[in-house]
Amino acid sequence: MGARHKPVTSGLNIGIIGAGQMGKGITLTCLLSGYTVNLYDNNKAALSKCAEKIKASLEKFLNQGKITEKHFQKALISLWTHTSFAFLNQMDIVIEAVPEDYLIKEVLFKEINPFLKENTILSSNTSSLSINILAKTIPFAERFVGLHFMNPAELMPLVEIIPCMQTSKATSEKIQLFVQTLGKECVYSKDRPGFVINRLLILLINEAIFLLTEEIATASDIDKAMKLGANFPMGPLALADMIGLDTCLAILETLERELDSIKYRPCPLLKEYVKQGKLGKKSKHGFYQYS
Q1: Could you give the CA distance from residue 82 to residue 103 in angstroms, rounded to a whole number?
Q2: Is pLDDT above 80 for 30?
Q3: CA torsion angle for 37, 125, 277, 273 (degrees, to 10)?
Q4: Do residues 32 and 60 touch, judged by C-beta distance below 8 A?
Q5: I want to staple 160 with a disulfide (CB 3.0 to 4.6 A). Which of 25, 148, 153, 258 is the partner?
Q6: Active-site residue 71, yes or no?
Q7: Residue of 96, 100, 154, 160 with catalytic role
């Protein structure tokens, strides 16, 4: 049996914006740690589907003995869903988890600003976008910080914290404490494209796709080589499928543009798969097929 999740006692109200893959994982992480979570999405169908997936995940943890029945029931009643921003005036920490696009995030920040209370900490869950650029649209940048949860957020033990130039020491300390109450380790990164994880990881994934394109080896053999030859827990192509091939492509394009480096040029096969809608596990087809 895996490690049991132990909920913490906290009066913090957590708001999460975006009911996609990362929003779901971050919400589940917070629920497992005993927080009351308010999840927003303007798409009612997506919000309902996300809530169903969260319940299914909690049931899985319960059946695996990783949480108790009491913990399970508390988590179920601690999730609230919203399709308007009115709830934000009660939130202590708000985590934005919308798609990796400057325009989408900046428009969202302008929309939610009037609803936030004076001491709310706002964080952007991003894997590659500049926190300093995003901060330009936020009038209270001293309470703004970047967070990079790994996928799946409920299982991965690390979170990157990326302060912007104006992020206050108090905000950094509060967000680090919050991350630690989630049972996560944290590392700080300067606001540079890709931060620490993706600056390194995305190169490996992209090169693995080039190997596949050049027919150097099959997908399964490329992954097997890295698992058994480099002690990786998961091969780079299987990992790309889990992350989402569209997300991998977006990260590569951001790094190629912002670092002005050809080494981050996305492999044409990755672009083709995304164009065809082969996005990995979430679409049931990527470098592998999923039932």
Answers
A1: 22
A2: yes
A3: -150
A4: no
A5: 148
A6: no
A7: 160
How would CATH label the architecture of 13-188? 3-Layer(aba) Sandwich (3.40)
Does the active-site annotation cover 198? yes
* Topology at the third CATH level for domain 197-281: N-(1-d-carboxylethyl)-l-norvaline Dehydrogenase; domain 2 (1.10.1040)
240's tokens: 């790309």
The token pair that represents 150 in the structure block: 């790994």
The domain ranges of the chain are: 13-188, 197-281
- Cis amide linkage into residue 152, ω under 30° from 0: yes
pLDDT in tens, 146-189: 999 998 899 999 999 999 999 999 999 999 999 999 999 999 99
Catalytic residue flag (residue 130) = no
Q: What is the DSSP code (8-state) at residue 111?
A: H
Backbone angles phi, psi at 36, to 5 degrees: -85, 130
Residue 149, amino acid: F
Of the pLDDT bands very low, low, confident and very high (cuts 50, 70, 90), residue 100 is: confident
Nearest to 203 by CA among 128, 264, 267: 264
**pLDDT tens figures, 202-259:** 999 999 999 999 999 999 999 999 999 999 999 999 999 998 999 899 999 989 998 9
Name the residue among 37, 15, 228 with its Cα closest to residue 117: 15
Q: What is the pTM of this model?
A: 0.88
Give me the pLDDT at residue 149, please: 96
Which entry of 13, 33, 124, 127 is annotated as an active-site residue?
127
The encoded tokens of residue 186 equal: 């944290």
In Å, how far are 112, 148, 168 from 107, measured between CA atoms?
A: 9, 20, 24
Is 106 part of the annotated catalytic residue set?
no
